[in-house]
Each structure stands twice: as structure tokens, then as C-alpha cells.
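task queued by scheduler; priority normal; single chain, no ligands, no partner chains; default sampling; output format set to C-alpha cells
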Amino acid sequence: MEYQYFNNTPSTIINLCKAIICRNIIYSVKDLKEFIDLVKSDSKPENIAINKLRTFKRESPEFKKIKLNQISCAILHFNYANNKMISENTKNPTGYLFFDIDNNTSEILKQQLDNNQYVAAYWKSVSNTGFGLVVRVSGITPSNYLDACKYIRRILKLPIDKKAHSIDRLTVLSYDPDAVYKPTSTIIDIDSLNLENAISNESSKNKEKSKQSLFRNTINKDKSLLGIHCDGKITIRYDNLDEVTENMEFHYNNDGIHDCGKNKVEYTNTYMPKNVKTGNRERTLGLYAKNLLFLNPDLTKELLYKIISNANMRNLLNPLDYKEVQSIVAKAYDNQSGFRSYSNKDKRFFFKDITLTPVEKSIKCLEVLNEEKRQKTQEKKNMISKIFCNWNSHKDGKITPKKVIELGNGILKKTLVYNYFKSNPNEIPDCD
């Protein structure tokens, strides 16, 4: 649920208040460049307090007093209505997102900030012991802010303070004549993160409800093969299992399980692995895009780009440049007519109760698999026992585990045979 005053129309204006303890807006700058110019300025009134603060240790009362009372502050990701910078007055996204790095001002870190394609600006913190940095974003809202911070931290691969995030997080104005502004940094599309959350990352509060009301059946709607929930909402289809099993007859046992045994159901699935290495990036994203279009032929190019961009940021160790992502999407879209169906996944077990959690399904599957394993083990033991019964000591000589393994034609394994010899000494044929 959005805040009362929130409007998702971007506005690059950055508001500043008098100090941490006084959130009334006293002035604003028109965009990030003007904010960095303010940080670099050696004539702004706040510099007197900033220079004095830097003479004290961070834990000292003097440091805290100056920081709380005497230095202007900004909120870089939203601007505010009613002249006060508090959550309920959240108005527009600025198109920026702020992150904080503590206790590190090394040259190595500075080089990382310079070379990172997503960092739009950075500067020494007010304590002069770390960095503040900003990235450009689109689609930021109060409701997706924390998720966006979490995802973008992973993309940046920088030692960011994970606790320095809240919707109305103040950034204390600093002084750094060497602050850096990068006008061509890559914009991160937060809309794609929202899409992924809506599809696959349900909150625990809604999981119980979804068990009962959001079971999806793949049905045709206006010649579209998009997945459709029973509540009428269209989502992305990530496999065609529903389509493949549409005419199957299910025979559930007393535990509500239909077991296909060796005749597993084969189907197409869109799988995007995690931590994809550099050499496999283009191929992996291209195959993911191809499978998505095969399963969702009515998917728009814009929506496909959002999904692939999200996978690029979340699943690749070193994300591709946005132009390369655009090329992958364009290639998949242009070759859509030549796609052919192929199966890359199979499924053995189906469950009568569609509300079972993955853990509950796993437990039921394990019960079946363990019983199957016990039966196979018993069959092998029976095979050993039969070999014993048919053994001719006068003709074949002394029986040994090695000979039994040879007679097992590759079915009997060494550990099973030796354990059987130890556990059943009375069955071993008498060769005296």
C-alpha cells in the first residue's frame, strides 16, 4: 500500500533539512549533479561544522552533538510534501538510491567505485572515514525500497552497510572537494524486481492464502498461452507442465501420490542458474529468453527485457552491460518463429493435495523412494541367498564374496555382499 502523498512520477529534486533532529525542509537542489556540487563546495556554511566534527572521534559526545544538531541532511531517494521529510509525506522518487560504506577509504575501493558501471556518484562521508554513493534507478516506490536495496547491494559487489536503509534515511551533508559525479552511469530498472517478487517471492503472510486460491492452470485466452490464475490475473508461464499433463489420468494412492515410476513426464522449463560465470553469460541468458518466449509467445519485448535484465543483475557474477542485454532480447524476439519444443526436465511424482509445501512433498517422495530402495536391497539379498543355495562346494570350491560379486553380473555391489557374508554366517555353504 502506497503512502498518502506518494506519486510514482519521477522528480529529481533533492530536499535538505536543517539537521537530523529537525526534518523541516530548508532548501532543495534540482538534481544529483547539484547535490555533488554542494558536497564539493568549499564555501557552504556547513563546512565549519563539518571540519570541527572531523577533529573528534566518532564515538565521542562532541561528534554526536555536532552531527545531530549542526549539519544539514538530505534524503536522496525520495522527495517530500508538506515541507517535512518524514515517511507519511513521501511524494516522488528522485531516480536515485543512496548507499553507505563505513571505515574504508582505500585507493582500491576508490578504483572499484570509479570502475563500477552503476555508481552515479560518490564522496567521502561526513566523518571522513567512509564513502556515500548513489546509483540511478527507475521504478522505486516506498513498498519496494527495501527489496531494491537488497538486490542492488548484490549487484554492486561493494562493502555496503546493510543496516543503513530506511525509506526516510537521512544522509548527513559532507564536504569532499574530490567528490565524483558520473552522468552516464547505468540505470537499474526496479520494475523488473517488482515483477520477479510478484511472481516468485510471495510474503509468508500471503503463502497460506495462495495455497487455496492461486493454483494456476494453463488455459488458452484469446490464443494466448500466458499462465492464468483462477482469480483471473495473468502471470508469466515458466513451464508447460500443466499443458503436458492436461489429458493424463492420475491414480493417487492412499497418501495422495501419483507415481509415474520410470515413465516420468517430460516438459519444458525455464531455468536460470545462480552465480553464472563470465564465459557462460550470453548463452545462459539467451537460452532463458528463448524458453520464456516459447512458453509465452504473447510476451511483449519490453516485459521480456525487464525479466532478462533482472536475471542479469541477480544471477550473473559479473552482469552484462545493458546494451548486451538488449541484444540478447532482440535476438530471441527476432528468432521466435523458429523455436521448437524440447524437454529439459521431467517429473515423477504428482500430488492430490495441491496446497502441499515443497518440504511436505519432499517428505512424501522420500517415503516412496526409501521403500523402493528397501525392496531393491531385499531383491539383491534374495539373489545372494539363491547363489548360496545353488552353490556346489565340491565342484565350485570355497565360496567367497569376490565370486558372488562376479556371479551378480554387476548388480551386486561389494559393500552389500561383504555385509551379507558378515550378517548371515549360517547361510554360507560348508566347503569342508
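post-processing summary
- The first strand starts at residue 14 and ends at 19.
- The two ends are 86 Å apart (CA to CA).
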